[in-house]
Design brief:
homotetramer; about 425 residues; alpha/beta; six-stranded parallel β-sheet; 11 strands
């Protein structure tokens, strides 16, 4: 485990430059009537969960080029998220994926996580792959399957995932279905949707009273003609049928080209139905790239709606990173995502919301754009760094990670060929 | 007005070849246990409305290259649709657009239409353009506008459109809003949607008890960042809030790239919420091309869902063509659309639905595809022609139109430079 | 090996119905001045290669659901293609992928193929995956790699593939590169393209004088920000720099949404630079679905350009199916593709090219569309079936495959868990 | 004409805050070894042309909502660009569009422009609209038209545009063709491209020896099935056939969804074939929105390639804004574009190119991203403002424009209903 002293010693090297930037920003914001301390505090509070499967190198159907030192057990995954949290003070939760991360001894796992300052976020079921020895196959679907036996298998699996989550202190279940079809005619759209609803109703009944269920949508992949829950409209239909514990989950990569995602976010929030949020970035499809690496302005616009909603009293969704790390070190990739997320969040906090509403009421598109871009063009990295520093993290997390050769240490411990369970 | 005798005389020339094809098809279908007469009768019943604005040459923002002989009055538009119906026996209704087609004497207009065998389909309001002398502008929206005065103007206009429709025997109002924004920040998504709902509620109250209201959605154009009703999910939300007389309207061109439209159709139908349907085709956006000219298989797949729904007892939506005729003679273009629509409909009727359901239940994607493509690959033009012939139409409508030099006659009557009101 | 007598006995059951359809079509075409015999002969001549990797179940990054009886060796792959050819008489060539299919004894392999009536089409190199024991990794590219050592490895591999191909009688090398980047900045576009050109020049030098090299392009996947050869323009640039033995290869799935592929085909053909063609279909990206299963009209429009080019004397490209079979039996999937390809080809042959050119010169878009759709709407399946029958194939290949329980036999021979080498 | 003293007096109000930001930035950059003066000087040199048609309110096919005070003559357009240049010191050239802006007295027009400090950039021909009294129509194309008479009309028009440009001191002709087709079959792709090449060759012959010709490409609109010059590959083919004075022009809005434009820019630059550049922004298609309003990071990435090319000694392209102002005041819109362009340019200048090349050679995607984003996240507005200030422009151009009520003045002079010629 990384010692706070080590981080502090690295921080010292950057302190002067950091303080200089922070002071400038503080003065500049004060001039605009904004108290930088309030922003820093909100930033510190903004924590994003890391999923257990994101700690190993990802791949595509064309192959996977593993890096070394990947975590091979749940305990090692927790250690990796702990390390991330120590460096960034931005990710105080881990999101488990069953069956890749079945906790054998929930108490011990919980205690280990607590040592790293980590909670357990939403648990994720997996009915898009067959597990060895599985009697029935999900090749043609799970909750929507034509066979009641397969549906029951998938329902039972989801119930089991809830049970695991309860033991760890999770409060939500995320359901992503790959169910769909590759060819016109293969699946009866109406029956598939009805069956999915019925299956979800079974799972919903098993949900503890203080839990939520998040229903993810995705237009394609791994099915390439249709997906049972293809868009937010379908997810919304299902969530409304299920009841008040059911919500829609938005994954940034799960949209058709050119979709106005920020508007979907606003629409769901005003209906109090946005439950979860998966961060990543993409240029073409569900590319699962580092958050903020391709469309940082879109990310800011989405945060602008999220802050607008949270300011209006809408419940805050569960935040999680959902990316695949094919060409970067997974931990470095996650640190870049965590940085980009908080930058966008801070920029959204800086939006002069009163002026924006005035410009909107006056249909003054020029001013409205200027107000948003004034926030976006502000260099807020000192705020994000300060929030980390105050909570014991590093001013330059990747710098520390590289200077301390942490990956090399992990390879030493775990080996060059370790491959994380999961994708 | 075109005389049935003229059409008959042209039909004679094609009779032998037509009958040969029909006989072959009849025998082939009989071999498959399908009664061709039943199919022909269903085809005859399938009538599509033509909108009044589709009778003139359309344009783009880069200009418009008018043809000649375009209808300059409501009476001439009715005459054009009457001509189309005489030739094709496929379009027994006209859909008016207010204020382009305000009927001065509703009784006379109704009588004129009846002479042509035409009914009045859904009426369309227009709040996306300012009319000369209009006190307030729709530049920044209508039903969603920030100003209560503009919203009231738009609400009152819609009520007036209902009143016109009642006088003519229409039973539905179609609302398409261009409301939205061109720049991030310009519009408050939440307020805009709330205002739209409130405005629609005012209009809904004015709706006669036997009327329906159709809410169209569209992702972009003429606004290029956001649209208040961007997708079926938003339309569905509004329709559900409004009540049981409110429905979603699907326009084939109003979707993002690669959208699975047939699945949206199935989802809306199973919720009994598909109210209207606008036919056209497109490669890039809302290109408004001739129906079936770009993606005839997609059109068939959509009809496959429509037939599946109608077979299940779901209410039949209101059918309309909504295209723009930039490089073709508008009447010829409409005849090609009417032909393509009925071809797709007949092919969907030929799908062996029992076998399809079996293949679907067995997850036999190969057979399911074969069943659909067997219907699609069948050359059903003889059935479509026969349905026209039985109802007094032409075996070859465009052939008759050209042979009789009808466009030349219209130019003679209306002039080379006549330009239809509307887009 | 399937006996011709078995196929004949199945054909007998369909003979009457088939002959009836063929006679009707023959008469109909004769009426249009078209000799059906000429069309049937051209169809027989149209043969498409099957790649060795297409004989097993494909997967996605989310997993793979294998079927049974997959071929485990090059010999078994040849047997599978031989079986396909026996049933369809449409695929007289196999396209090998090195290193998945290294022929240990080229003479024996050639002889085995000859027994099945098979030739060896273009050979394919693979520098998108590391082979076990490979000293250097392709993780960051191959022919474009920053390291000269990795580039040399990839160059040498391509030379070796040519050598294997020469031993088998192939006459072309297909190069598909996955080289590119996942993040802005990761790769220097200019250097990467220059290096690729230099590497290709090395390979080009090794090319025998009667060989061709085909350069494939693809906009994304497995890299998700940029691809070194992203479009036909880049491939064209490389091919022009290389020389007259270098050509562009078009894969139907390798385009951005809404691309007009048929126009690219026409442009390349008129420059005598279309070398190879990979068939498949897709809705979203490189979905690798059965040819003709999603956009059969686009396939027809592409064939319309191919036939236009071949009629103008342009050289015929090398034809190959490149699909992934995730939910269908691979052999059935290939049979559906082969059928769809020949249907589109025959429809394109039926286009009245003289009338089309007249309509085009007259800017008569209505007639031009009618001419194309008249061909497309014609049910030409009897011609395609007859071409198979004449060459000893089955009137209903999938029917025979299922009736004879061939997959079950293969599972018996090869086992339930056999997994083909390759993707 | 706006007096420098007025601008200065407004600048005084912002001076302290501006200087504070500039000092901070200067110190910060100095710390990184970057001389802010050099950056400011390069920024001052970066001038973008404004097209004459961009000074009035734009519209869509659904209508146009004019603002007031639009320029009605060439002289008023020059005055508007002069005003923009006085405020921003960023646009020292105007780009004329013939026949909308035929200069009756070239000498006087040149002198007027000089008074405003303006040059004449590339001249633009228009063969996508018919002019009143035009004998032949461009409805079905111009340089690619099937009729030699129409092609000659379009060729002659382009020659005439060159002649007008010569009289004004322009050095380039920009050709954008709307030629294409709306329906499959309508146009013969091969003939259309050949005819276009032949027509361009005629125009090319008329080009003075020190002139360039820029060939624009666009995938769709106003034609919705195909465009004769659909992509950079086609433009490149034409430019290479024409000769060394012919170049490709890139318009940011003329690409299919998800295109990697920055890579196209790099590829053209390394071939010395990037001639012109049109700035705007878009979410869906050729939306012609304010530059930098939708995808500012993409704009930065494009500038990163432009700077990479210019640093390598590639010729600098001709820069122009090409946008449509549907909901904003056109002058304010242009000021926002000019600001965004220079911001992106300065950020690209700040990229540590040595470190970037090192990271690229090391395949260190994490560092490469950090280097780019470090530049992008820097708040460079003080540099852009300072470059304006030094050249006599305003620190806050829109602020001055609004404070002085300039639009009101223009309405007073030109009227509320003045409508600019052009789109």
């Amino acid at each position: 485990m990384l010692q706070k002293e080590e981080i502090n010693s690295y921080n010292k090297r950057h302190e002067t430059v950091h303080q200089r930037s922070l002071d400038f920003l503080s003065e500049k914001l004060a001039h605009q009537g904004v108290d930088i301390e309030g922003i820093i505090n909100k930033t510190r509070y903004f924590q994003v969960a890391v999923p257990s499967w994101a700690l190993g190198t990802g791949g595509t159907r064309f192959g996977r080029f593993s890096g070394g030192g990947e975590p091979g057990s749940l305990e090692e995954k927790i250690a990796d998220v702990g390390l991330l949290h120590a460096l960034t003070a931005s990710c105080n939760a881990i999101s488990l994926h069953i069956p890749w991360d079945i906790p054998q001894d929930a108490g011990a796992v919980k205690a280990l996580a607590a040592k790293h300052g980590l909670l357990f976020d939403a648990v994720n079921s997996n009915t898009f792959q067959d597990q060895s020895g599985q009697g029935q196959s999900y090749k043609y679907g799970s909750l929507s399957h034509t066979s009641a036996i397969v549906r029951q298998l998938a329902i039972d699996h989801n119930k089991e995932v809830i049970d695991h989550g309860m033991a760890l202190g999770s409060k939500a279940l995320t359901v992503w279905l790959s169910d769909g079809s590759c060819f016109p005619g293969q699946q009866n759209f109406r029956k598939a949707l009805s069956r999915t609803l019925e299956s979800l109703q079974q799972i919903y009944k098993h949900l503890p009273s203080d839990w939520k269920i998040f229903i993810e949508y995705k237009p394609y992949e791994p099915n390439f003609y249709s997906t049972v829950i293809q868009d937010w409209g379908t997810s919304s239909f299902l969530a409304n049928q299920l009841g008040e514990k059911a919500f829609t989950l938005v994954d940034l990569g799960h949209h058709l080209p050119n979709t106005n995602i920020e508007q979907i976010v606003a629409t769901l929030m005003m209906q109090q139905k946005l439950g979860g949020f998966h961060f990543n970035d993409s240029k073409f499809g569900d590319d699962d790239l580092t958050t903020g690496s391709i469309k940082p302005y879109q990310l800011f616009l989405i945060f602008n709606e999220l802050v607008e909603g949270m300011t209006s009293g809408d419940p805050e969704p569960a935040w999680m990173i959902d990316a695949s790390h094919n060409v970067k070190d997974p931990l470095e990739d996650l640190m870049q995502s965590l940085e980009a997320i908080r930058i966008a969040y801070v920029q959204a906090l800086l939006v002069d919301r009163v002026a924006l509403h005035e410009a909107q009421e006056a249909n003054d598109a020029v001013s409205a754009q200027n107000i948003l871009q004034d926030a976006f063009r502000t260099d807020v990295r000192a705020i994000v760094a300060e929030a980390r520093r105050v909570d014991g993290g590093a001013l330059d997390p990747i710098g520390v990670f590289r200077a301390m050769d942490i990956r090399k240490q992990l390879i030493g411990q775990r080996g060059e060929k370790a491959i994380a369970t999961g994708l």
